[in-house]
Structure formats: C-alpha cells, structure tokens
Amino acid sequence: MGIGFWSSLSCYGQEKDSLLLRHEISVGVGGRSVVDNIAASTSENYKGTFEIHGQYLYNLNKHVGLGGLLVYEHFGYDNREGNGQVISIMPVSRFYWFNSKWFAMYSKVGIGLLIDIEKKVHLGEVFNVTPAALEFGRGNFRVFTEIFPMGPVGILNIGVKYSF
Prior knowledge:
By secondary structure, the chain is α+β, with helices and mostly antiparallel strands. Helices cover 16% and strands 59% of the residues.
C-alpha cells in the first residue's frame, strides 16, 4: 500500500511539472529610454526615440527564466546630424514574484553589448534592469507592460508574449 501511495504521488508531481510552459517568445515596443532622456535634456532639437524588442526565455521552474533580449532603437533630432540607430543584445534573467492564472508580476535583469550602427559599427556595454512588470492574460498568450525599466527598452513599454 505504501509503494502505491508514493508512486501515485510521484506521477502527480511529474504531471504538474509537465504543465509548466518552458518556452516563451515576446515582442514589445516602447519609447523614451534612459539614454533618450539624457539626449533630450542636452538638445532642444531632439525629436525622440522608438524601440522595438524581441525576447526568448526558457523557464527553469515556475519562478525563474533565462534567455536573450534583442532591442532595436532609433533616435533623432530635427536636423539630420546626430540621428542614430543602435542594437542591444544581452542575456537576461527573469524572476516571477507571483504568477496566477490571469495576472503575474516579475522583475528582470540583463547585461550585454550595444552596437551603434548609424555611422560606424561601435561596440559598448549595456544593461537592462526592470524592477517591476505586469502580465495579463490566460493560457499561451499574455500581454505585458514593463514599468520604468532602466536600459535600452523604453521607460514604459508594452508587448505580447506566447508560451509553449
């Protein structure tokens, strides 16, 4: 009887783990990164920025995910001098504070390379820290907003993710 109890408990545990959606991809857009705010304060001709980002994460468990983030950012001025395009690429780590059926909250951190592609290819370092982010939705699709991330993604960005 004891063996049957423990084997059924073991099967239940494996079944619950298999329900965890391990892979996720997301796409988002945002504006006004931290770098953008510095540029805006130094020039009255500054027009602003636009960024789009894509991310892949592999969920190690229900709290921790590891993956990569790719960000394209375009910024410009009224005159064509100083306009630029940069690409950021970095590994990231995400931690869910809680994750219910309809709502989740997480934090994220990453560090990587910044590639300036406008006039010449120039490499630099870049980081991304998201203290708080919210997800809404159920099942494989969710929408998210990252609130005041510090790094190349916009101060307020929104997007959609798909888990499988």
